[in-house]
Design goal:
It contains 13 helices and eleven strands. It is an alpha+beta fold. The chain has two domains: 166 residues, Jelly Rolls (Sandwich), CATH 2.60.120; 119 residues, Homeodomain-like (Arc Repressor Mutant, subunit A, Orthogonal Bundle). The strands form three sheets. The protein has a six-stranded antiparallel sheet with strand order 2-9-4-7-10-11, covered by helices on one side. Strands 6-5-8 form a three-stranded antiparallel sheet, covered by helices on one side. Strands 1-3 form a two-stranded parallel sheet. Strand 5 and strand 6 form a beta hairpin. The two termini are 15 Å apart.
Length: 295
């Protein structure tokens, strides 16, 4: 299931860096897609399965999630238990052009915290507890607001979202991109090397050499930076790539394992299940089942 790129017409022809809208349809019927805008989505009515990045979860009424820029996503409706038809699909969505917003705010306020939030949001977020109730209430108010009142409500939502309390990530961080932006000279070079060679057998000696460190010093340094051993980190990168291939290709699971640098299929399956809590086959089946519904 390969995601398609979408252009949001509501923002494409607007000076505003955000737009809020209520969407009512017979079902959540969009294709698996991505766009450069971030998206906060409140499910007013309906239920089914949502896919955000590699996360596949059920959703119900009042589900509130935040999708980062360029993260593939889709919501699939499911039929009502008493009728063959799905419940009416109603949602309120807030779309944010994060780059434009940060440019507009530059010089007025310190936008570093907001920028960091938008970066972390590429993992996808689920908002719950009292924060969910507060944010959804503000979203509803925004539907009727204009001008300064609308902007004020938008900023209130950002304040809530930037506070990590009552938020949970839907995906593990992309290890390559996360550590490539760190201000450590040897790290970007090492991450580039891993990105280019993770399909091959990368020895600890070679990784230490690229980082310019002795093996023992490299192991301590890498563990202190990533909170993982080099072997664990390399597995995370490979399994992340495997998830992408399961999403976007028709390669067999054996072929995918080989493409990701695993010559031992049993070991690949164990690593995949440890990280994703399901086997590669279960992961792919869960996606294909929802895709066949064509809702």
């Amino acid at each position: 299931m390969k995601p398609s790129f979408s252009i949001l017409s509501d923002l494409a022809h607007s000076r505003s860096s955000f737009v809020v809208k209520k969407i009512a349809r017979s079902s959540f019927s969009t294709d698996f897609h991505f766009h450069k805008e971030c998206q906060l989505v409140h499910i007013v009515s309906g239920s089914g399965v949502r896919i955000i990045g590699h996360s596949v979860e059920r959703f119900e009424k009042d589900d509130l999630t935040f999708v980062g820029a360029n993260v593939p996503h889709v919501w699939y409706s499911e039929p009502d238990s008493e009728t063959p038809e799905p419940l009416e699909a109603v949602s309120v969505a807030l779309y944010i052009d994060s780059e434009q917003f940060c440019e507009q705010m530059q010089g007025l306020v310190d936008v570093k915290k907001v920028q960091n939030f938008f970066i972390e949001a590429q993992r996808g977020l689920k908002i719950h507890g009292e924060k969910r109730a507060l944010v959804t209430a503000i979203l509803e108010e925004m539907l009727e607001q204009k001008d300064v009142h609308l902007l004020s409500s938008f900023l209130r939502i950002l304040v809530h979202l930037c506070d990590p309390a009552e938020e949970s990530y839907l995906n593990a961080p992309d290890p390559i991109s996360t550590y490539s932006i760190q201000p450590h000279g040897r790290i970007p070079k090492l991450m580039y090397f891993i990105h280019q060679n993770f399909k091959d057998d990368i020895s600890l000696e070679k990784a230490a050499s690229v980082a310019g460190l002795q093996i023992h010093a490299f192991c301590r340094y890498f563990k202190s930076l990533t909170n993982r051993t080099f072997s664990e980190f390399l597995n995370d990168v490979r399994i992340g790539f495997a998830c992408k291939l399961l999403h976007q290709s028709e390669l067999s699971i054996t072929q995918i394992a080989l493409e990701c640098g695993y010559s031992n299929i049993s070991y690949f399956n164990r690593c995949f299940k440890r990280i994703n809590k399901m086997s590669p086959k279960e992961f792919r089946d869960s996606l294909e089942t929802r895709n066949r519904q064509k809702l």
